[in-house]
Amino acid sequence: MLIIMADIVILILFIHAWSCFCYTSFLFGDSLVDAGNNDYLITLSKADSPPYGIDFIPSKGQPTGRFTNGRTVSDIIVQALGSKSFPPPFLAPTTRGKAIREGVNYASGSSGILDKTGSIFVERVPLRKQINDFEQSRAKIVSMLGENGTTEFLKQVVFSITSGSNDLLNYLQPSIPFFKEDKVSPAMLQDFMVSNLTLQLKRLYEMGGQKFLVIDVGPLGCIPFVRAIKLMPAGRCSSEANELIQGYNRKLKKSIDTLNKNLGPETIFVYANSYDIVMGIIKRYRKYGFENVDKPCCGGNFPPFTCFKGGGANISSVLCEDRSKYVFWDAYHPTEAANLIIANKFLYGDESIVSPVNVHELYNYNLP
């Protein structure tokens, strides 16, 4: 009898430890938040070689699969909230068992909301499949905590989704010979993306998610890659690209508002406006301490846009001297310096940036 009582006490303490880990994050999305999942795939979309990760302190400057020189926005957020570690990639062999309680990163570089997005890179994990992977994680949590314990645990978890950029980039770039497809209208693409993303959010909700952070698509018309393919002069962004993105973001915001109306107050969906943050940085870059807003720190701003470090200077990509002075790390992704600004505004911004509450408030939000 005493042994049985001791087992019950241990189980209660175990569940309590899980349910009180208030800053747990499950992360979904693309290369903006990928923490190394693509390292375990057969894909052309990898960040597993120097100089990627050159400023990532935990790895002592070695690449971790993050598509930037240091931390991603999600890394900075969880660290600011007091976490001592970052949610590990789902595909890493060590992401098992109790490790799940500190969160998991399911994001995959080159992936999108739509299954076919990024197919040219071979393997990647589309958003739908990422949600399937979370379903596996949930089953493992249930095996340890039971359904009731899992329900209590997931009440405190923040589900963060950063996806859509690659879907729009695929639409914007020139058709590839032999793979040419007739493009749908911009409005149809936007509607299809929003309906698919909303479907995946509802799946997470049905599996117990109650706190959601949904990040919109930034001004892709200003990234070095799009500036190059659209032949934009220095200091200019592609208005065609940015109009497409703004139309999508407006529809996404409307869908998030509808979800809050229909599923609240037991559930909260936070919309994060990365578009205006990044445009603000680009327009007032010197105010933020940047000196270059057009070119990437690593690699060229014309095809093939490669960023790598070879055995000698003659076979390495050009690398800027001061990474903190550049908005863009490579042709697609921000530097850690830019990510710090974005993350800070997500954490503490007003309703023009994050609504209905900011990210700091979201993690501490008490649902009914």
UniProtKB/TrEMBL annotation:
Identify the InterPro entries for this entry: GDSL (IPR001087), GDSL_Est/Lipase (IPR051058), SGNH_hydro_sf (IPR036514), SGNH_plant_lipase-like (IPR035669)
PANTHER family noted in UniProt: GDSL LIPASE/ACYLHYDROLASE FAMILY PROTEIN (AFU_ORTHOLOGUE AFUA_4G14700), OS04G0577300 PROTEIN
From which domain of life does this come? Eukaryota
Q: Does the keyword Zinc apply?
A: no
* One Pfam family cited in the UniProt record for this chain: Lipase_GDSL
| Record's keyword terms, sorted | Hydrolase, Lipid degradation, Lipid metabolism
Name of this chain's protein:
GDSL esterase/lipase
Q: Does the keyword Cell membrane apply?
A: no
GO terms under biological process: lipid catabolic process
Q: Give the protein family.
A: Belongs to the 'GDSL' lipolytic enzyme family.
Q: Which GO terms describe its molecular function?
A: hydrolase activity, acting on ester bonds
Q: Which organism is it from?
A: Papaver atlanticum
